[in-house]
Design goal:
With 79 residues, the protein is mostly helical. The chain has a single domain, classed as 434 Repressor (Amino-terminal Domain) (Orthogonal Bundle), CATH 1.10.260. The chain has five helices and no strands. It starts with a helix and ends in a 21-residue tail after the last helix. The relative contact order is 0.17.
Length: 79
């Protein structure tokens, strides 16, 4: 999670650019990274859109990977 956020900040162009994108102060971005704080939920989708880093990688506690539907592996291919 922290590595994903640090990567996102680099892609966006640094802490200042990330802060401007999200409408927060640069020290907030620093705190998220330096103190391994999770990216606030209200910013996850904007960071995902700006960087291509998935919401799951940014906040796996909020956006778990979807498991295959029950029985999905038992389906036969369409004919």
């Amino acid at each position: 999670m922290a590595d994903a956020l640090a990567s996102a900040v680099r892609i966006i162009g640094g802490q200042g650019a990330t802060a401007r994108l999200l409408g927060v102060a640069q020290p907030s971005v620093w705190r998220w990274i330096a103190r391994a704080k999770p990216l606030p939920a209200e910013h996850v989708l904007a960071v995902e859109a700006a960087t291509g880093i998935s919401r799951h990688d940014l906040r796996p506690d909020l956006y778990p990977r979807e498991a295959p539907a029950a029985g999905a592996t038992d389906l036969e291919p369409a004919r």
